[in-house]
Amino acid sequence: MPAKNEDLHGNAPESCPVALLLIDVINDLEFDDGDKLLEHAKPMAERLARLTDRARSLGIPVIYVNDNFGKWRSDFRMQLEHCRNDGVRGRCIAELLAPHKNDYFVLKPKHSGFFATALEILLEYLEVKTVILTGIASDQCVLFTASDAHVRDLFIVVPEDCCVATTIEEHERALALMRAKLDVDTTPSDELDLEALLTRPTD
After folding, report:
1. Element (DSSP H or E) covering residue 21
2. How much is the pTM?
């Protein structure tokens, strides 16, 4: 916990050693190869929805880390409304993974969830030591966020079935790189022991 401003202006969030990050899942997918990505994203989103429900039931904070897609006047709620109501390709994903009222959200301008965002200070206030990274895409924003989490000495879990890339080959290459270079645990979501992560020694 930071030495100063411990109460976050009177609205201190809960403390938890684990946080679940959903990266770029509120996404219209209206770009080249978005149709290919959607093919993999639909089954992924169903698994991620189950993991998110499990996390919420254990008091693990859920943080939406979403790109602003270059729309600097937009906010997260506007993006959610766009994805749910404008007939876009990614509507089914946004519907399935819509945030709950107690979830957190961070908008990012680039690939990493840490670059030029409030994510790092939010994780500090929550006293997070382990991050579970999920979402779109394995070989881009999930990978870059994992890299930045690694240099911050966080323990990183990337469930291999809760993130996707445009192709299976790109997905597998990204997972292999994260395992080899970033010490990432890629245990599938249905085998992931959230209770064990909550009690994992941090020293």
Report:
1. strand 18-23
2. 0.90
